[in-house]
Design a protein that fits this description.
Blueprint: H1 14-19, H2 27-39, H3 44-62, H4 75-116, H5 129-161, H6 166-169, H7 172-182, H8 184-206, H9 209-240
Length: 241
């Protein structure tokens, strides 16, 4: 594999990440279907289809296609890629979910165990142990959750760059190297997604149920577009390397 050229001069095209949708005359239908399938994420097949759509979209951005929004038509391909992407997300989030379970059951165990052991005196410092455990665990869970949320897009980028290879998605050299080459720009992409998701969710809540899912789908597309720009730079770097 050719070496990737230095990326320190690369800058995200933030305007394009927000404005690309306006160039596609069919965007209301495509985004509307995205909202419907996002709603159906309560059923596994909906989540898989949405993930597949995002990966195909990311691939089109990486090829610098002027209208990157794909059609909702090749459901077999969307399901195939979506299942791979969903499995990647699931495995990356296992430590986070396990930590949440540990915090929950640890707190319950302490809250029940202290009274049984006779340490339920309000003046006893031990009575604060469950609260302290929960507070410390919640802080750790926040850090782990944010770290996982930052890793997963880079892992999905490896699926785009390496023909949906699960091996590439879990290769720490590829995933961490991808993040490390862009550092501040990558952090900016994640921060923009979190901020947009928060702001657009407020707008969606003022609309209706489908409006909430439409804004959520658009925010996912924004992040996918930003990650797709990194993938485009990776490919250009290999060509120039």
């Amino acid at each position: 594999m050719a070496a990737i050229a230095p990326s320190r001069d690369f800058r995200l095209n933030i305007n394009e990440a927000f404005n690309f949708i306006a160039r596609d005359p069919a965007w209301p239908r495509k985004l509307g279907l995205g909202a419907v399938f996002s709603l159906l994420s309560l059923v596994l097949v909906g989540a898989v289809l949405v993930q597949g759509y995002l990966l195909v979209f990311m691939e089109r951005v990486a090829r610098a296609e002027p209208e990157p929004l794909p059609e909702w038509d090749d459901f077999g391909e969307l399901l195939r890629k979506g299942l791979i992407g969903w499995v990647v997300s699931l495995i990356y989030y296992i430590p986070y979910v396990a930590l949440l379970a540990l915090i929950y059951f640890g707190y319950i165990g302490l809250a029940i165990g202290l009274p049984l052991s006779g340490s339920n005196n309000p003046s006893s410092p031990a009575i604060l142990l469950p609260v302290a455990f929960f507070a410390a665990g919640s802080g750790l869970a926040l850090v782990v959750g944010l770290a996982t949320a930052a890793l997963v897009p880079a892992a999905h980028a490896q699926l785009v760059l390496h023909d949906t290879s699960l091996v590439a998605a879990f290769d720490p050299r590829l995933v961490l190297g991808f993040i490390g080459r862009y550092r501040g720009q990558y952090a900016l992409a994640i921060a923009l997604y979190l901020a947009a998701n928060y702001l657009f969710s407020l707008v969606g809540q003022l609309a209706c149920c489908i409006g909430l899912y439409a804004t959520s789908a658009f925010c996912q597309l924004i992040l996918a577009h930003l990650i797709g720009q990194f993938c485009w730079r990776e490919r250009m770097g290999r060509i120039g390397g």
